[in-house]
Amino acid sequence: MTTEFPAVDAVRGPGQRQEVRLPDRVRACVTAPETAPTDAHAAVWLEEDGGVWADYPTVPPDDHVLPLVWAEGRPVSRGELGARGCVLSRIAVCRTELVSTFGMPQVNGSAQYACVWLDNEGGVWADYPTADPTEDLVLPLVWAREQTDSRSELAERGYVFTRIGWSL
Question: What is the tens place of the pLDDT at every residue in 64-74?
Answer without folding.
Answer: 999 888 888 88
